[in-house]
Amino acid sequence: MVRYITLLVFTLTFFIGTAARSQPRQAAQACQANRVIVSVAISPDGKHLSASWDRGYARLWDFNTGAVLYTWLGYDNVNVDSVTFSPDGKYVLTSAENGFAVLWDTHTGTKVRTFGSLEDNEGLQAAFLPDGKAILGNYLKGTVLWDTESGKVLHIVPNENEFLDNKISPDGKHILTQHSPVAVWDVEKGKQIHSFGDNSPQEAFYSPSGNYIFTAIGEELQIWNAQTFALVRILPEGYGLSFSPDDRYIILSGGQDTDILWNVQTGKLAHTFTYNTDLLREAFFNSKPFLLILENSDPQTVVHIWDLEKQTEATRFSLPYTLGTGFPSIDTFLILKDDTSMITASTDGTLVLWNLQTGKKMRQFC
User: Fold this and answer.
1) SS3 letters for the chain?
2) CATH number where 14 lies
3) Which of 132, 164, 196 is the last residue of a domain?
4) Mean pLDDT rounded to a whole number for the chain
5) By Cβ atoms counted within 10 A, which residue in 183, 301, 309, 363 is the most buried?
C-alpha cells in the first residue's frame, strides 16, 4: 500500500478556553499519548513551531528552546484539522472539523477573530493567501475566501462533489478545485476561468513555481502550462507525489514497490526507485537537488536521501518509528528551510526534530 502527499490546510466561537502561557522551558511536560497530531507548521522566520491535535487543541512552541508558549484549548473530540502561520508570522490560523477557524496572536496568545462556516456544512481546512490579506477555507460543499482583517466573506466557490483539498496557486491569484471537473478559479473575481474536463479527478496540484498544473483524470496523468492551460505532456499511469522546487522533476508512484522520477522538460525517465516491500512510503523534495524517500520497514522507517544531480543515494538512516502503522508511528513530516533537518509527528503525541545528515534526534516537542 502506498500513501501519497502533495507538498502544505465563524461567527460562533469554537475554542472555549483562554490562551494560557506556559512557564519558560516547560517542554518537559507529559506528552499526550494516543492523541494524533493532525497538522504541523513552522513560522516563516523559524522562531516558532505550532501543531494541532485530533481532540480539540493546538499549541505554540519556541522553536529554539522547545518551551511551550501557548496552548489553545477547544471542545473535546473535535479534530483541529489544520494549523498555519500568517506570512509575517504574527498569527496562527487554526481550523476544525466543525467548520470554524480561529486567528490567534502569536505574541500575546489571544484570539483575534473567528471565521464562520457555510450553513449546514462540515469539515474545514484553512490557509492564508501568500500576501496574508485573505484566508481560503476549504469545506466539503464549497470554498470560501475571507478578508483577514474584517472576517467578511469575499467569495464562495461551490463544491458539488465534496472534495476538501482545493489548492491555492503560489502567487495566490487562483484556486485549483479538486471536484469534477477540475477547474481554475480567479480569486479576486470569484469566477471560473478554465476547466480541464468532466472526468472524475484523482488529484490536481500546482508545481512549486506555479508554472505547471498536474492532473490525474481518468487513467491519464497530464502536465499543463498554468498560464495558457496548454498540455505540456502526458506521463504514464501512476500517482503524483510531488514536484522538485525548480519544477525540473516530478516523482510518481509506479506501483506498490516502485517510484518513478521523470524530467518534466524532456519527458524522459530519470530514475526508477525499487523497494523491498510494498508497505507505506513517502517521497518529497527539499530545496536542494535532493529527494527524500521514507520507506516503512516495520518496526522502523528508513530514510533514503538521493542526490538528483549525481543520481546516487547520498545517505540513509533509520528512525525508531513505523510509517503510518503500529504504535508509535509517524503521521506527518515537515522539512525545514535549511534542508538539514526534519520534523516528524507521531502517534505517541510527540514532535521530533531530526538531523538529516546524521539521522540523530536534535529536540523533542510535546
Assistant:
1) CCCCCCCCCCCCCCCCCCCEECCCCCCCCCCCCCCCEEEEEECCCCCEEEEEECCCEEEEEECCCCCEEEEEECCCCCCEEEEEECCCCCEEEEEECCCCEEEEECCCCCEEEEECCCCCCCCCEEEECCCCCEEEEEECCEEEEEECCCCCEEEEEECCCCCCCCEECCCCCEEEECCCCCEEEECCCCEEEEECCCCCEEEEEECCCCCEEEEEECCEEEEEECCCCCEEEEECCCEEEEECCCCCEEEEEEECCEEEEEECCCCCEEEEEECCCCCCEEEEECCCCEEEEEEEECCEEEEEEEECCCCEEEEEEEECCEECCCCCEEEEEEECCCCCEEEEEECCCCEEEEECCCCCEEEEEC
2) 2.130.10.10
3) 164
4) 78
5) 301
